[in-house]
Structure formats: structure tokens, C-alpha cells
């Protein structure tokens, strides 16, 4: 753990940790397989709101996130053996399965971005230094708290996206839309699993906050820097293009606008994690989830239905 024992004792007194109530949590979260067959020519570099810089954040996120997902998978697998509650164990298997498929399909998407001059290989090299050579070597308790922190941010993004469906509707690129909406749905579906696992196995508040700030630095500053440079690495002429700079304000609003921006309008949700008694389900997304399950997965009209292959629910082992 990060803190010396006496300091930790004082913290625990000031910030008592409640064991999470696991009853009533969604069991039976399916692991869904899809085949999107991405085509490079169809990828819209201005997918989000027709803003190139704003879309660059999500392109960079798509590359870096696969490494975050590997960390989540490795950490969840390690800690699953210490979980006694059969439902939480089953839910952890669902988390591992969903993240494994996210990572696989985002890699397919990232590969499809390469012929379109996205700096995928360079960003993969950078991500390997950060994740494979640094984060994955951290002690397991810190990785557990980083897993909970990463999953908090993906839950925030998912809730934002579910409340702002319009951001997906400014492009003809149906597969990018399907990819992000599927990911959004599942991040919200499994948003409490990493947190519950952390609370059951550790519950240490300062360590949880350390994981939060590492996730914030990675997804905010790290991916943010990737997004900042991406349009120029992809197309150096952007630096001289008047149209590109005219769009910059719109990209800023998409990401940081206090009213409607991804980060700007989610600040309250992001920093709510600092509450000692925070729980992901304090932000109720059940109605949104039901709405999007119907919209995305309906066997006839679902947006994801043309790409759906099969689904599987891990067994409950008691
Ligand atoms: Fe994911
Ligand atoms: Fe996730």
C-alpha cells in the first residue's frame, strides 16, 4: 500500500469504509461478440460533430484504451481468485469478457485507421512504454485501484454519450457509430464491477484516490496530448488550413464546453469519485441502459443487430 501504517490508521478513522452491498446488482451480464468488418475508406476523421480535433480525441482514445483494457483484464483475472461472493465472481468474468472483446474490436478499428494516416503505430509504441513497461509492473493493490479509476472514467464517458446521442448522428460512418455506441452500452452495464471488487478486497480510500488521479492523468493529459498532435501527424497541411482552425472552437466545445462538452459538463460526475462514500450506482443509468439496449440490440431494428454474432453469459459457480 502507498501509506505507512500509522498514517493509514488515521485515514481509516477519518474516512471509514463501508463494505459494498452486493445484493440487487445486475447478474447475468452477457459477453457479446460482433463483427464490424471495418473498412479504412469509410472511417470519418470528423465523425464527432464533423469536428476533426474533437474526433481526434476519440481516435487517440481508441488506441490507448486497448492498453487500459489489457490492464483491467489482467488485474481482474488476478483478483477474481480472491473473491468469495459467487455473483461478484460471475460479474468479474463478464467484465473480463466484455473488455477482451472491446480490446479486440478496437484493435481491428485501429488497424483500419492506419491506411488513413492516423499515427496508430507511433501511439501504440508510446502506450506500450506507459502501460506494458510501467503500469503493468505496479503492485497489484495499485493496479486494482487503477482498474476502478479507469472504469470510473469509462462510466462517465458512457453516461455522457447516452445523454448526448446527437454527437453520434453527424456522420454517414455507421460502423464508427456502432462501435462507440456498443462500447458505451457495455461500459455502463459493467460500471460497478471494478469498484465493488476494489471495495471488497481493499477499500483503502487514499489508494483509491491515487488510482483515480493516475487514470485522470492518463485519459486526460496522456490521451489529450495524443489528440492535440494527431491532426497534424495525420495531415501536416492542417496547420496551414483555415478551415481546420475555424473548426477548433467547435472541437473545444465538444470536449471541454461546460454546458455540453464531454469533460466540461461531466466535471461533477468525474470528481464525485472523491467522495468517501461514492458508489458508481449513485449515478443511476438503468433507464438509459434499458432505452439503449432496445435501440441497439433489438433483433429486428437494433443499430448493432447487423454486426451481432453471438452472446454468452458466464455461469454462476457457487
Ligand atoms: Fe471497454
Ligand atoms: Fe469497462
Automatic annotation (TrEMBL):
Keywords in alphabetical order: Hydrolase, Membrane, Transmembrane, Transmembrane helix
Keyword Hydrolase tagged: yes
GO molecular-function term, one example from the UniProt record: hydrolase activity
Transmembrane annotation, as ranges: 209-233
Chain coiled-coil ranges: none
Ribonucleoprotein as UniProt keyword: no
A Pfam family hit: Metal_hydrol
PANTHER family hit by this protein: METAL-DEPENDENT HYDROLASE (PTHR39456)
Protein name: Metal-dependent hydrolase
UniProt organism field: Acinetobacter wuhouensis
